[in-house]
Amino acid sequence: MRKTVRQAARxxxxxxxxxxxxxxxxxxxxVLLFSAAATVTVVGAGILPEAxxxxxxxxxxxxxxxxxxxxxxxxxxxxxxTGPLRERLRTAVRDxxxxxxxxxxxxxYVYGLLLLLAVPLWLVGLLVDGVLCGLLRRDAxxxxxxxxxxxxxxxxxxxxxxxxxxxxxAERVEELTATRAGAxxxxxxxxxxxxxxxxxxxxxxxxxxxxxIGLAKRAxxxxxxxxxxxxxxxxxxxxxxxxxxRHVVRGIHPPILTDRGLAGAVRALAASSGLDVTVQVQGxxxxxxxxxxxPAAVEAAAYFVVAExxxxxxKYSGSDTAEVWLxxxxxxxxxxxxxxxxxxxxxxxxSGLVGMRRRVxxxxxxxxxxxxxxxxxxxDVELPCVW
Length: 387
Prior knowledge:
By secondary structure, the chain is an alpha+beta fold.
């Protein structure tokens, strides 16, 4: 009986919030009708977009209520109200999300006062269920109906507020368009970096190597010792050029990923970072032939995320310790890097975090950076993939 009463009380609180929102929606209709009537005048034309924004906030409050009760989020899909007044008016009128919100508000006039049904259920339920549970040791019958009312409110609101598949598809297309632009920008920056490294380093050394070999060939007959010194210098130049080429290759796809897998490569990063790094791995294996491997593109993205995060921690955090967590899930890969430094990471202060976001977004992943003043700084990355 006690559990039933608690659940009924929770449902009543949920219905009370729904009823309060219903009363607010009744008042809001006056604003909406006034906005629609004033739109015919030049002076009142600017009111309608603001009224639609307020309507979206009201619908958003209802989505929050439903999520709190059911634990399932109702997605939003609205066209942005930006630009000149004429464009904002056109968007406000033609947006399918606005029409769905209006249909929900009209229906909410009917079912938004379900709390009024809960009041008599409490009066009857305390008496009937008190006898059934307390004396006859049977299950409650009346008070659970209050939870059913809250479920009904949530189900109807979900059906009315859930965006149409076409609206979700349009929003997804816009998201992928932005992601594609970021990926192209990241790819262009990476190509420029590789070109700069090859031009300033490897190419210059190869030119110097070619000149020394040519000089050695000319001096070979008349000055063998000088030619030998030139050849030794050329060999040194060739070794330096090879080292720089390896550095460039590591910037594209580190060979250690192929040799040791993601877990082993991250442990190597941690060992060379200059910090005391704890690496925890779940669902991943070391080595190239030890079971399921993360796709190469996902491995590279995760590797560079960890490398960038540890570099930033060593440079800016002021902390001597860090933690890296890798986990293979059913739908992808999760990476978490945490340091106990001073926090306050600013994405506008450099290109490191921006580049990280672009690299992850190119794979349809997400990056969450939490860095309050005083720390800690936590970078959470989710990379979807198929195993």
